[in-house]
Amino acid sequence: MQRTEITPESMERSRLLVRGATALAVGGAYYVTAVLSLRFALVLENVTPVWPPTGIALVAFLVFGRTVWPGIGVAAFLVNAPISPSLGAAAAIAVGNTLAPLLSAQLLRMVGFRTEFDRLRDALALVFLAALGGMLVSATVGTSTLALSGAIPAEEFPSAWSVWWTGDAMGVLIVAPFLLSLLSIRFRPGTRWSRYVEAAALFVGLAIACRLVFSSEVRLQFLIFPFLIWAAWRFQMRGAAPAALLASAAAIWASVQGTGPFSSGTLLEKMVNLQAFNGSVALTAFVLATITTERLKAQEALRRAGLELEQRVLRRTDELWATVKKLELSEMQLADAQEVAHIGSWEWDIPANTVTWSDELFRLYGLEPGSIKVDHEAFLDRVHRSDRKRVAAIMDKAHRDHQPFAIDHRIVLPDGSEGILHSRGRVVIDEKGNPVKMVGTAQDISERKRTEEYAQRLHEADVRRKEALELNDEIIQGLAMAKYALESGDAPAAARLVETTLEAARTIISDLLGAEGGGAELKPGDLVRDAPARLPEEGEG
Amino acid sequence: MSEPPVPIRVLIADDTPEIRRLIRMNLEHQRGFQIVGEAGDGAEAVALARAEQPDAIVLDLAMPILDGLQAIPEIRRLSPRTKIAVLSGFHDRTLARKALACGAHRYLEKGTAFAELASALRELCGRHGTNHEDRSPRTSTGT
Questions:
Q1: Cα A24 to Cα A68: distance, rounded to the nearest angstrom
Q2: pTM of whole model > 0.80?
Q3: From CA A117, how far away is CA A46, in angstroms rounded?
């Protein structure tokens, strides 16, 4: 046993003590109930129409476990010793009386019985396995012992056996549910006083009905059933078990006293009638009680599921709301960012041919956000006439090959002015590879383009200045010097200077016309003059 | 033929030796000028102006190291007496204005006749009419 390893010895001792005390208490209860029950003996002194101790023993085995067997065994022996033909016979009967509830408890455990006793299968298992099945053992062992010891003649065996069996079975059927229902009773502070009034009315009514039914010879026993149904329906097992106990006890009491509907006929007839009645009472009460409980539980589960669903919906709604808020926030931030960067975004739903523009994109096109309905054609209409073909071709190509694209193009604003956009886009395809939409951005680069043009002009001016400098250095200086040489009367120097300057002029001219910086090559016709060359006349400066 | 006139001491600054040679030759040919030095770049022009403190300087604008526009203020600072005549190949009013704004006293384009250059220098230095035809006493007063 696993407890020896970790539990201190003192714990072990106290555990054993508790177990001993439990066995003793169960044995005591068994003994007292048995002595009281023997007063109702119908055959000799030890065969009674109902044997409640088996119900006590069964519940003890179910609740405390198998270890209470010594208490039950000893109590059974003590009960039977004075009324048995011998001590040996008493011991044999005690063994049978102990084994029967032990077997019943074992059978119940095997089918998953729950001591809450609130399911239909528990009710059916208690009736058929524990009461009718398990008690075959005690009846057979007990009756055989009596017959073998000669206490009853052999021909009485069947009737004695059946009385023993039904008595034990009734003990289980009537007492065990009652005890189990006591275990499950909880005092609930919230219970309305009307419930107590109703319970009181139920049991008073049942008591009156019992008094009426079992004090007269008229067979009115069916009057009991409406009360059982009431108890099971309204109070489930907590009402049904005590009601069944009350009805059965009243029936047994009346038949022992010789009154009521079960007082006439032979012993066997009386027994059959009585036990049929008791069995019907128990079965009706318990089946109805458990079915009602199951129905209520199902309702409760449904209600809880509904509540949980509602809460989940609420929670989900909250989450969705939060997500929506977050989305709204990020959309606002995106719109702000687009406004700052002059970047608009667009989405073209190709099958529906609807184009969605961001607010900033509307503004880039010089439009109020959302002021027009955009589709692909409306977009192309706003592209500058000269760029339209190129833009459409690039988008068509992207549509075909699913590749991303980027393009700079001009647009025409409603006031006729032009803007330059840098557009990028990509194609979104579905699982079959069909393009479903194009998404992208457009950035206003008019400013950048203007800056680039300005830089280009600056660059060109710079180039021109350099050319001017070169011309100045090579040609003007050369000619000036030639003039000075002539003034100085140095004709050879002047001729030399003119020659050098001419050479320099040729080089510069061919540089300007030629391949400098990848300039275009001269084609026929490029040299056609607009006006005749202006040659200086004599005397002109 | 009284006392000989005090010649105008001239510094020539131009990166082209041929120009320097021709200017020197022509100014020396006309009486009344004494060439005190030749500079081939702006920095040399500044250094020589400082050392020689000439009456006038014939200054090109496009030169290595320091261009004329950079050299003018330096010359004015280090040799305040010196009159600066810019002789540039650029036919450009803005450039002329800029040179004058920097402190030049006269802007002449290259190709201007030597006679004109000489008379401009005389005029700057207050030697009116001091050429070989007219050597009047009023020019002998100097600066």
A1: 8
A2: no
A3: 31
